[in-house]
Amino acid sequence: MAMNSIVTNASSFVALRNLNSINAAMQTTQNRVSTGLRISDSADDSSNFAIAQGIRTELKALSAVSQGLNNTKGIGKVALAGTTGVSNLLGDIRAKMTELSNDGITSAQRTILASDFNKLMSQAGNFIANADFNGVNVLETAQTSISTLSNLNGGSLTLNKQDLQTTAAALAAISVATGASITSAAITSEFTALETAVNTALGGLGADVRALNLQTDFLSDISSATEEGLGNIVDADMARESARMTALQVQQQLSVQTLGIINQAPQSLLGLFR
Question: What is the 3-state secondary structure (H, E, C) of 25-56?
Answer without folding.
Answer: HHHHHHHHHHHCECCCCCCCCHHHHHHHHHHH
